[in-house]
Design goal:
Layout: H1 2-17, H2 25-37, H3 49-59, H4 76-81, H5 88-115, H6 128-142, H7 153-181, H8 217-226, H9 232-237, H10 246-263
Helix pairs in contact: 1-6, 1-7, 2-7, 5-6, 5-7
Length: about 260
Amino acid sequence: MTDRLHTALATAIAELEWFKTPHTIDQVVGLYSEALAGRTMRYRYGVTNGEMVESLKASGTGGSRGCKGDHSDPTPDAALRGQPDATNDTDRTLTAIDTCLTNLTTNAHHLAHHCNPTTTWTPTPTTRQGHIAYTLLHLRTAHPNLTAPHTDPTYTDELIRTHIADDAAWLHDKATDIWHTSHGDTQPVATQRAIVECRICGTWRRGTIAVAAGRCQECSNFFRNHQCEATEAIVRRWAYSPTALPGQILEAKAASRKRKRAAS
């Protein structure tokens, strides 16, 4: 069983490592959407969710004026559904891909924590390519410890062979088929955005992505709710609880006032 598990996990990792420039998951999804729509779409290169929504609003195709979701503030998936001539097949395939990515992320996290309970907590990704990176990070973390004494062989086997390996194989096969059918090698190479870590919590945890004013989503939410920056104690508490203690919030506010006085 040991060799079988290592082989299955190594294969899954190799299949997910395929998703890098020029054939990132964003590029593959964009090519598939273009093929069904019969025209060039605006969202091939992995624009941010905010840019996608703003683009729709500016062009008059967002919200109740054109998006099939008939919503004034469309989600990214709704934005893709609002593309001209998009078909229901596009929706079903994108949903299947997104579901597969979510399952991979969840099961990879469970596997890493099962094999190594001290695994560093990493924020849940918010982009398709982020799901790939997150999954690979945790699969590589788990790989050396698959047969550690504290692990349950049956549970490990189920996670890897029943879930992770099957999902990775399906996603890889689907993506490579789209890539070759769409002649992806002849398409312009997608320029990937540089990932900027959160300026607040990036020092204390890995995998953070700045989304606004240099803050990740969690730090942005904390600042909006409390009008101060999160401290190291609060960030580390987020690893097992989404809320900060009242005393920690008071300390964060005091630290914020101290920084403002020092800067004035």
